[in-house]
Amino acid sequence: MIVNLSGDIYEQLSLRILGWEYPPSHRLTEEGLCAEFQVSRSPVREALNMLVERGLVRKNARQGYTVRDLDLQEIKDSYDVRLVLELDVVARLCRAGVDGAVLDRMEARWTQLRDGLPALSPKAAEEDEGFHRELAEATGNRVLVRALGAIDSHIHFVRRSDITNTERLRQTCVDHLEIIAALRQKDLATVSVALRRNIEWGKTNVEAAIKDALVRAHLGR
Amino acid sequence: MIVNLSGDIYEQLSLRILGWEYPPSHRLTEEGLCAEFQVSRSPVREALNMLVERGLVRKNARQGYTVRDLDLQEIKDSYDVRLVLELDVVARLCRAGVDGAVLDRMEARWTQLRDGLPALSPKAAEEDEGFHRELAEATGNRVLVRALGAIDSHIHFVRRSDITNTERLRQTCVDHLEIIAALRQKDLATVSVALRRNIEWGKTNVEAAIKDALVRAHLGR
DNA sequence: TTCTCTTGACTTGTATACAATCGGGTATAT
DNA sequence: ATATACCCGATTGTATACAAGTCAAGAGAA
Question: Is A77's CB within 8 Å of B142's CB?
Answer without folding.
Answer: yes
